[in-house]
Design a protein that fits this description.
This protein is α/β, with parallel strands linked by helices. About 45% of the residues lie in helices and about 15% in strands. The protein is built from 19 helices and 10 strands. Belongs to the peptidase S33 family. ABHD4/ABHD5 subfamily. Keywords: Acyltransferase, Cytoplasm, Differentiation, Fatty acid metabolism, Lipid biosynthesis, Lipid droplet, Lipid metabolism, Phospholipid biosynthesis, Phospholipid metabolism, Transferase. Its main location: cytoplasm.
Length: about 375
């Protein structure tokens, strides 16, 4: 796997492509000339409406458009947690499934609940499903996070626990994609009694950065240059930097998202949603940056802490056959937990966004796994 592929997948698939555009010659000169202004701008939400064509209402509308093809009945609410924060939550439930352990969906970096649009109806057939916008993302509160990696991670974990207590879940199946998978394990280590099963979907942040990386896989000069130039910035600062060009930028750089959801939408619904998700106040994005070291590796690799996860908690790991995420972490987890249930599943024809690339196979796989949980 090349270094630029690693950078793409490690940060949720969209980051490096955004950085590539910001790295184009036509924009580099602007970046050099306006570094101070950009840093200030990134942290002043009141500038957003005048520069980026977005607002909280537009994000809400974009999410509603994403969910318009979902047939099941569901509720939407802001669940209050500590410090005046809220977590935006979709709940699919009915009387016939109320006695079964609920499935909780945690999205990845730069994502939101709307990206589960092709999965919600199927996954909620046999048990309650709750999809949550992580703290700092989507329509959830966007507070200041600690710049310390461990403290930022703990803020995420505590927000999930406060949310669980508020919605009244005794236990749950935790399914996390990308960053959501990392947080699912971190939460389960601290609150093992609340988790019946962990499902990791293309998880981020598990392996250590190889010490021989630069020797074995030389980093292209242009990546080093961009890395040095943009090290003070959040991963998606480039998307906000281009202002009104942002929506077109997402459509141009990520046409694959339109294909992933082509069975539901023929327009730019998905790219509009992704845009509005990621040009709001960069709260969770800043926390993610604090939790990484250069090129998207985790500051606190989760493999170093897997022995702290209680052996009775089963783990299912789902990869896409066409993803450039290294699946060796799954094998490492299996080797580290010889007396625990660890299952590794590869879905053919899927990339990093397994749930969107092959939604039918993904839904079947998750439902089959959930059948083993009361």
């Amino acid at each position: 796997m090349s270094m630029d592929e690693q950078a793409v997948t490690a940060n949720g698939g969209i980051v490096q492509r955004m950085m590539s555009v910001v790295g184009a010659h036509s924009l580099l000169s602007s970046v050099r000339g306006y570094v101070d202004t950009t840093i200030r701008w990134c942290w002043i939400p009141s500038w957003l409406p005048s520069w980026c064509p977005t607002s909280q209402m537009q994000l809400q509308t974009a999410e509603d458009m994403m969910l318009r093809c979902v047939d099941g009945t569901f509720s939407k609410q802001y669940v209050p947690i500590a410090n005046g924060n809220v977590l935006w939550t979709l709940t699919f439930s009915s009387e016939r499934v109320k006695d079964r352990t609920p499935l909780v969906l945690l999205h990845g970096f730069g994502g939101g609940v709307g990206l589960w649009a092709q999965n919600l109806d199927s996954l909620s057939q046999r048990r309650a499903v709750l999809a949550v916008d992580l703290l700092g993302f989507g329509q959830s509160s966007r507070p200041l996070f600690s710049t310390d990696a461990q403290e930022a991670e703990e803020q995420f974990v505590e927000s999930i626990e406060q949310w669980r207590a508020k919605v009244g879940l005794e236990s749950m199946i935790l399914l996390g994609h990308n960053l959501g998978g990392y947080l699912a394990v971190s939460y389960s280590i601290k609150y093992p009694g609340r988790v019946k099963h962990i499902v990791l979907v293309e998880p981020w942040g598990f392996p250590e950065r190889p010490h021989t990386l630069e020797v074995d896989r030389p980093i292209p000069v242009w990546i080093k240059a961009l890395g040095a130039m943009f090290s003070p910035f959040n991963p998606l600062a480039g998307l906000r930097l281009v202002g009104p060009l942002g929506p077109t930028l997402v459509q141009t750089l990520r046409p694959d998202f339109k294909r992933k959801f082509s069975s539901m939408f023929s327009d730019n619904t998905v790219s509009e949603y992704i845009y509005h998700l990621n040009v709001q106040t960069p709260s969770g994005e800043t926390a993610f940056k604090s939790m990484t070291i250069p090129y998207g590796w985790a500051t606190r690799p989760m493999l170093q802490r897997m022995e702290q996860l209680q052996p009775q908690i089963p783990v299912t790991i789902i990869y896409g056959s066409r993803s450039s995420i290294d699946s060796n972490s799954g094998s490492s987890i299996k080797d580290m937990r010889p007396h625990s249930h660890v299952e590794i599943i590869t879905i053919r024809g899927a990339g990093h966004y397994v749930y969107a690339d092959q939604p039918e196979d993904f839904n079947y796989t998750v439902l089959h796994m959930c059948d083993n949980v009361d």
